[in-house]
Amino acid sequence: MQAFFDKFPIKTKINVAWGDMDALGHVNNVSYFRYFETARIDFLAQTGLLEILSDPSHSPVLRDTHAHYKRPVVFPDTLIVGTYITDIKSDRFTMRYEAYSESQQAICTTGYANVVMFNMHTSQKTPIPANMMDVLKQYCIEEG
């Protein structure tokens, strides 16, 4: 558990709700995408990127998002989602997530989102602004 907490400078605590479960009695797959969304926005807030992105003309948009389910989760539980950045390019980056189940004391789900910087006025990709790039690099973990 300590290794998990040491790996992630940005973590988001999410309480599993009864309504997150499906007819099979475990958290439904779509719920993890909501958890990752919550962690993504929390990451932006904790790092100051949300303030940098307050200009609505440029915005990071999801190109695609994925989840890998390792262990079923049931209510009640609390997940700690660790978030970090990989694969930074001039106009895109990857945001990775690992969800740790407090009740199971194990990583239950991993995922990632490929994020592209987008100019909302021209509907075109645009380079990541320098001040945003500086922050992203601080939270980048290169995977080997």
TrEMBL record:
Transmembrane segments: none annotated. It comes from the Bacteria. Its EC number is 3.1.2.-. SUPFAM superfamilies: Thioesterase/thiol ester dehydrase-isomerase. CDD domains: 4HBT. The keyword Hydrolase applies. GO terms for molecular function: hydrolase activity. Keywords: Hydrolase. It holds the Pfam family 4HBT_2. Belongs to the 4-hydroxybenzoyl-CoA thioesterase family. This is Acyl-CoA thioesterase. It comes from Pseudoalteromonas fenneropenaei.
